[in-house]
Design goal:
The complex is a heterodimer of chains A (82) and B (658). Chain A has 82 residues and is of the alpha+beta class. Chain A contains two helices and five strands; from the N terminus they run βαββαββ. Helices cover 24% and strands 34% of the residues of chain A. Chain A has a four-stranded antiparallel sheet. The longest helix of chain A has 12 residues. In chain B, the strands form nine sheets. Chain B has a seven-stranded parallel sheet with strand order 2-5-1-8-10-11-22, sandwiched between helices. In chain B, strands 14-13-19-15-16-17-18 form a seven-stranded mixed sheet, with helices on both faces.
Chain lengths: 82, 658
């Protein structure tokens, strides 16, 4: 279902942050809102990666992928205890 | 855990072990199902103040407050935004929305790594003794990322990030997901960042053995841990009416069966449904099993659940028999009915007896805990096996550690079987998995870190690997329980961990962040993929990068077959590996030896002698492997040892033709 939302880790390239932003969180929000107005951020990641996680439809994910500064969209993976 | 400290020799060499003060400076972050803070294994008596550099917190939540932390559990956090986004809000009537462990797994793993000493530990009298974690003075920081519906990568990434910020020294992760490239593997990405900050990351290899190529968590900057057995067993005896006896295993602790032989029946003949032999819920006909011992085949549902199905249908006991998929591997369970697990061979004989005798009878007896079982360790059948499914040139697993029938701390919320019907409350539970072997290595790495705080994660891994053993005291090679034959480096990696030897390895194969980035360049990673994996901006240069040159403490050589090279069947291939050893001991001369000399491959080490005159001095050598083309699937194994007469620095060599 193309309208069903899935969770993604959105990996951003901080070196592409426009100078108009002083805070990378603002940039994450702006990037997300420019592609998907209604999506909420679950986590903002600051050290292992720069980016955030959010819920997107397939169409929204494609739209976001096309934004400048997006390195990768990683679909949520479910891990199991061993 | 009980027994594993003795099995690993931790009680033998106090002289080499770090002091409790230096061990108390090491913080182990455990990403799992949380902690049950009331466990005696988290008692902080005798521990000094929390290290001043620690930035972690004890987060509040359902049934958990900051007062649940102490000088043992110095941090406890929970991560569920990803989980709740997918599965909806956590049902707090079922599961605590806090670091509190509702499952038991996280309490088991964290107490295995660094639980305090508890006397009189046991599960219903089984495995009794003094329980302690491997680094019993180290601190624990719990990061709850796993919930009833699983562990989500968004939560895991957030937890890894927080653990790094908080200041953990060791990260222990007994979880795994589907196999994916390093740049798309959350654990690999998080572990790279951790490694770059000097944090040692150990992960479970997975429980998908004995099939080959089933490993998870295979990035070279992770220490991947498989599972072996202890010298401990919990024997149960099945006595048949025809006079034959079979030895199995059980942790049953209730009322014994009457002292007479009872009628028994094979579940496959006491059921009208497909798969009735598996004793699935409501599959047994009460009239066929009432008052009888029921033989159920393993698989399909949980092993203990089968006993409950038997009981509900009126049966009085259960014999759980392995089918071909499980072979002779026995797993001990705290059954709710008198029950014993048997291997496939015994199971087949029992089924033959039932089908040949209309009045077949049997009984089950239990004889507690047996120590000194030999041979041990053997590689557990469930332990995932190489070759490495992502990069065949990196041998995985890295090593094995105890992971079968491990007693350690447990949640007070559920019984030992985890089933709703199991209302028993316990402080310790006995369970198996690479989940159990991983925290053993995490705790042992903490000991090495305490003894050598300046060592990098790669140096600690090297010390653990190059001192691991592959043979028993009688010289025979470690066995694989799945086959009954000698195991190979694809099963045990460098071998079984020997922590006392790891404290004084003599030499180490060290590796830096740059070395791992060169490795990614050798995999032809683009700058974008390198950034995704490592968080660093790097463009590979025009120099020739080689996977074979990553300074890894083991060797995996993949020759192409003649058909792939396009050359004749007699085509000779040569592969050259470069390694660098760093002296971490006294000045010494080391000599190389390759054993056993494989018939199919010529292995040449240059130079064969390395002299070290100062600490941290580095010396490089090459290993050249030359072989004729062989049919695809051919394998060959050897070991390379550098020895100065006191230390033996051994690397496994696995050679395949693909």
């Amino acid at each position: 279902d193309h309208q069903e939302r899935r969770t993604y880790i959105v990996h951003m390239d901080k070196s592409h942050m426009p100078e108009s932003f002083t805070d990378h969180h603002e940039w994450y929000h702006a990037s997300l809102k420019s592609a998907v107005d209604t999506a909420e951020m679950l986590y903002a990641y600051n050290s292992i990666i720069h980016g955030f996680s959010t819920r997107l439809t397939e169409e929204e994910a494609e739209l976001l992928q096309g934004q400048p500064g997006i390195l990768a969209l990683l679909p949520e993976i479910r891990y199991q205890l061993h | 855990t009980t027994r594993t400290p003795e099995f690993l020799g931790l009680g033998r060499s106090e002289r080499l072990l770090p002091t409790s003060t230096s061990e108390g400076d090491v913080i182990i972050g455990v990403l799992d199902t949380g902690v049950w803070p009331e466990s005696k294994s988290y008692d902080d008596t005798g521990l000094g103040p929390v290290p001043s550099r620690w930035k972690g917190e004890c987060e509040q939540g359902t049934n958990f407050s900051s007062s649940n932390c102490n000088r043992k559990i110095i941090g406890a956090r929970f991560f569920c935004k990803g989980y709740e986004a997918t599965l909806g809000p956590i049902d707090e009537s079922v599961e605590n929305r806090s670091p509190r462990d509702d499952d038991g797994h996280g309490t088991h793993t964290s107490t295995t790594a660094a639980g305090s000493t508890v006397t009189g530990a046991s599960l219903f009298g089984y495995a009794s003794g003094v329980a302690r974690g491997m680094a019993s003075h180290a601190r624990i920081a719990a990061y709850k990322v796993c919930w009833q519906g699983g562990c989500f990568s968004t939560d895991i990434l957030a937890a890894m990030e927080k653990a790094i910020e908080d200041g953990v020294d060791i990260m222990s992760m007994s979880i795994g997901g589907s196999i994916s490239d390093y740049s798309r593997d959350t654990v690999a990405i998080g572990a790279f960042s951790a490694m770059a900050k000097g944090i040692f990351v150990s992960c479970s290899a997975g429980n998908s053995g004995p099939d080959s190529g089933t490993l998870s968590n295979v990035a070279p900057w992770i220490t991947t841990v498989g599972a072996g057995t202890l010298d401990r067993d919990f024997p149960a005896y099945v006595i048949l009416g025809n006079g034959k006896n079979f030895t199995g295993t059980s942790l049953y602790s209730g009322k014994p069966l009457p002292k007479k032989l009872l009628p028994f029946v094979y579940a496959g003949r006491a059921s009208n449904v497909t798969g009735g032999n598996l004793c699935m819920s409501d599959s047994l006909e009460p009239k066929s099993v009432a008052g009888k011992i029921v033989v159920c085949d393993r698989g399909g549902n949980s092993r203990v659940q089968k006993g409950i199905v038997v009981k509900k249908a009126g049966g009085v006991g259960m014999i759980l028999t392995n089918t071909e998929a499980y072979g002779e591997e026995l797993v001990a369970d705290a059954h709710l009915v008198p029950a014993a697990s048997l291997g496939q061979k015994a199971g087949d004989e029992i089924k033959k007896y039932i089908s040949s005798d209309n009045d077949a009878r049997a009984t089950i007896g239990f004889s507690g805990t047996q120590l000194g079982v030999q041979p041990s360790p053997v590689v557990a059948a469930f332990s995932s096996r190489g070759p490495n499914p992502i990069t065949q040139e990196i041998l995985k697993p890295d090593l094995i550690a105890p992971g079968v029938n491990i007693l350690a701390g447990w949640t007070g919320k559920i019984g030992p079987t985890g089933l709703e019907d199991d209302t028993r409350h316990i402080s310790f539970n006995i369970i198996s998995g690479t989940s159990m072997s991983c925290p053993h290595v995490s705790g042992l790495a903490a000991l090495v870190k305490a003894a050598h705080p300046e060592w990098s994660p790669a140096a600690i891994k090297s010390a653990l690997m190059t001192t691991a053993y592959t043979a028993y005291n009688n010289g025979k090679m470690i066995l694989d329980v799945a086959t009954g034959l000698p195991a190979t480096p694809f099963d045990y990696g460098a071998g079984h961990v020997d922590p006392v030897a790891a404290l004084d390895p003599g030499l180490v194969y060290d590796a830096s962040v740059d070395d791992y980035i060169d490795f990614l360049c050798a995999l032809n990673y683009s700058s974008e993929l390198i950034k995704q994996t490592t968080g660093r901006q790097f463009t590979c240069s025009s120099k020739a990068y080689s996977i074979q040159d990553l300074n890894y403490p083991s060797f995996s050589v993949a020759f192409e077959t003649a058909s792939e090279t396009g050359l004749g069947r007699k085509a000779v291939s040569t592969v050259k590996y470069t390694r660098t050893l760093t002296n971490v001991g006294k000045p010494a001369n080391y000599k190389a030896s390759v054993w056993p000399q494989p018939a199919k491959v010529q292995i040449k080490v240059v130079p064969e002698l390395l002299s070290f005159s100062t600490v941290n001095e580095k010396k490089s050598f090459t290993v050249t492997f030359t072989a004729n083309s062989m049919p695809s699937g051919t394998t060959s194994y050897a070991h390379l040892t550098w020895s100065d007469g006191k230390h033996t620095v051994t690397s496994p060599i696995a050679i395949t033709w693909t």
